[in-house]
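Today's session is about reading a structure prediction critically. Students often jump straight to the picture, but the first step is always the sequence itself: look for stretches that repeat, for charged clusters, for runs of hydrophobic residues. Only then move on to the predicted structure, which in these notes is written as discrete structure tokens rather than atom positions. Here is the chain we will use throughout the hour.
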Amino acid sequence: MTKNKNVMLLSLGVVGTLLILILPLQQIWSVKLSFLEAVAVVTSAWSVGLLARNNPLGWWIGLIGVITYAIVFYQVKLYADVGIQIFYFITSIQGILIWLKGGEHQMEKPISHLSKSQFIVSAIAFIPSVLGLRTLLIAIRGAAPFWDALTTVGSAIAQLYLMERYVESWYLWIAVDVIYIPLYASRGLYLTSGLYAVFLGIAISGLRHFQWLYKQQLKQQV
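Below is the predicted structure for this chain, in token form.
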């Protein structure tokens, strides 16, 4: 309990410090894209790196990246990615609660695997969601509507899996990262494109680490 409390206090301190750096910008919409993108890149990389190591502090750090990326993506007309940032914000807060108190007796939630029924539901929902979002993006003149829709839906499912500490979340993150790298480069977001190349490496590392943790849990149950 004390450990969880210390993590929460440290998380709030880090997030508060980062907010102090961002909030004094009175006209945030006019801030140069490169500055906001740099803030988003640093906090997002930090966040994903922590989550890949199974550290819940990553959810808190990621909130800053989510806010700044929402602004960045709006400016380059990747509207689906703006929407996914709002989704990330909500699910990040949920992720904190699930990781720390989602297990038995409100203890830390263990690593687990996706069930077959959950996989089937995800697969069935995936295609119509992508097609529906693509249609919407075309209507509002978004950039790269198909790829934006595909990565957005894939990321949303991966985020839901990660919230529940499913090993399979990292397989999905690997897939969307491969697509995101050229997508963001095509919109001139070279820092973000480079970030997703880093994310790809982190996702591979996260997959291996979660697989190892899952095996350790099984050994402890024997």
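Discussion point for the tutorial: DSSP finds eight helices and no strands in the chain.
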